[in-house]
Specification:
Elements: H1 2-9, H2 26-40, H3 45-63, H4 73-86, H5 88-107, H6 134-148, H7 161-172, H8 176-180, E1 187-188, E2 195-198, E3 201-205, E4 209-213, E5 223-226, H9 229-241, H10 262-275, H11 283-297, H12 300-307, H13 312-318, H14 329-338
Antiparallel strand pairs: 1-2, 2-5, 3-4
Helix pairs in contact: 2-3, 2-5, 3-5, 4-5, 7-9, 7-11, 11-12, 12-13
Pfam families: Phage_integrase (PF00589)
Organism: Nocardioides bigeumensis
Protein name: Site-specific integrase
Length: 344
C-alpha cells in the first residue's frame, strides 16, 4: 500500500527537453516557442514578427512571474476576458499565441494539456461590413483627381500614383500590400481583357525595412485577375511614365524605385480625403466594396474567388455588406397563393 501511494504521488510526466520543465517561468516557454518557429521556418516573416509582438505586449505582462504549472485554464480565461472587455481583436491575438506556445509545450511533453483548450469562447461584437456606393466611389475619385492636379510650392508634386492605386484596388479587390508589390512582369495589358498576376506583397519589418515579399498572404491569394477597362487604363498611364523598364521594376514605387510602405499610402489617402471632408475611408474598404458588388451582381463564390479566400464564410462575415432588401418576387408569389377572391 505504501508503494502504491508513493507511485501515485510521483509525477511520471517527464519533459523530453530538460531545459524546459513545468517549473520553468513562462518567459522561458516564450523564448523556446519563438526559437521553434524560427527552426521550422514555415510562417512569413511578418507573421513571425506579429506573433512575438502580441506575446510580449498582451501576454507577458500578465504571466511573466508565473511558472508553467501555475498557468491553468482559470488564469488564461481571466486574461482573455480582461483583454476582450476592451478589444476583441487583442483577446483573439493573445489566444492565438497562447494556444500555439502551450501546444508546443504539450507536444514536447513539458505539460500534460493545453489550458487554452478549455477557456470560454470569445464573443465577437456584431459588425456590418461597410462598403462604398458608386456615388461615393466617384466622389473619392474626384477629390483625388483635384489633389493630383495641384502644383505645390514646396516638395514633389503628385505624380498620379494615389489615384492609380485606388483604381487597381477597385478593379481587383487586391490588398494594398499586393497592389504595391505589382511588377511589370505581372501585367499583360496587350490582351482583352488585360490581366494582372497577384503573386507578392509589400511588408515593412523591423530591422529589415520595407521590401517585396515573394508570396502574398496565403497560397490562395496567388491568382490571375482579368482587369476592368478603368483599371487597365490606369495601369497603362502608369507604365507610360515609368523610367525603369526592367520586368522586375515595381509599378508603384518611390522616386528612387524603392517600395512604398502601406502605412504611407494609407496616411496619404486619409489626409487627401480628410482635407475634403471625407472620413473613414481605408484601402480595405475598397476590397469590401468590390466583394459586395460581385456578390450582388453574380455570386458569393465568385466574390470569394476574386478576393483569394479559401473559405466563402470569411467573405460573408468580413467583406460583404448585407442587403436588407428582400427580392420583391416574394410579393408576386404570395399574391398568387393568397390573393382574395373577387366578391360578387
Amino acid at each position: 500500500m505504501a508503494l502504491k501511494k508513493k507511485l501515485a504521488q510521483r509525477n511520471a510526466f517527464q519533459p523530453v527537453d530538460t531545459t524546459l520543465t513545468p517549473d520553468s517561468l513562462f518567459p522561458a516557454l516564450v523564448e523556446y516557442w519563438l526559437a521553434d518557429l524560427d527552426l521550422e521556418n514555415r510562417i512569413a516573416p511578418a507573421t513571425r514578427f506579429n506573433y512575438e509582438r502580441d506575446m510580449r505586449r498582451l501576454v507577458l505582462p500578465a504571466f511573466q512571474g508565473f511558472t508553467l504549472r501555475e498557468i491553468g485554464v482559470a488564469r488564461c480565461d481571466a486574461l482573455l476576458k480582461q483583454l476582450g472587455n476592451s478589444s476583441y481583436s487583442s483577446a483573439k491575438r493573445a489566444r492565438t499565441v497562447l494556444r500555439q506556445s502551450f501546444a508546443l509545450a504539450v507536444r514536447h511533453e513539458v505539460l500534460p494539456r493545453n489550458p487554452i483548450d478549455n477557456v470560454s469562447r470569445l464573443h465577437k461584437p456584431k459588425r456590418t461590413p461597410t462598403a462604398l456606393t458608386a456615388a461615393e466611389v466617384n466622389a473619392i475619385r474626384a477629390v483625388i483627381k483635384a489633389w493630383e492636379s495641384t502644383r505645390g510650392t514646396s516638395g514633389p508634386n503628385p505624380d498620379g500614383q494615389l489615384g492609380q492605386v485606388v483604381e487597381v484596388m477597385l478593379g481587383t479587390s487586391a490588398r494594398i500590400g499586393e497592389v504595391l508589390a505589382i511588377r511589370r512582369r505581372d501585367l499583360d495589358l496587350t490582351t482583352t481583357p488585360a490581366t494582372l498576376r497577384i503573386c507578392g506583397t509589400v511588408i515593412s519589418e523591423r530591422g529589415k525595412g520595407t521590401f517585396r515579399q515573394e508570396q502574398p498572404k496565403t497560397d490562395r491569394s496567388n491568382r490571375v485577375i482579368a482587369l476592368p477597362s478603368f483599371t487597365a487604363e490606369a495601369l497603362r498611364r502608369r507604365m507610360a511614365i515609368m523610367r525603369n523598364h526592367s520586368l522586375e521594376a515595381l509599378v508603384f514605387c518611390s522616386r528612387e524605385g524603392t517600395p512604398l510602405t502601406t502605412a504611407n499610402v494609407r496616411r496619404q489617402l486619409r489626409k487627401v480625403l480628410g482635407d475634403a471632408g471625407i472620413e473613414g475611408v481605408t484601402p480595405h474598404m475598397f476590397r469590401r466594396t468590390v466583394a459586395t458588388v460581385v456578390n450582388e451582381q453574380a455570386s458569393l463564390n465568385l466574390a470569394s474567388e476574386l478576393l483569394g479566400h479559401t473559405d466563402p464564410k470569411v467573405t460573408v462575415e468580413h467583406y460583404i455588406r448585407r442587403n436588407e432588401h428582400v427580392n420583391p418576387l416574394t410579393a408576386e408569389l404570395l399574391d398568387q397563393a393568397f390573393a382574395r377572391a373577387d366578391e360578387d
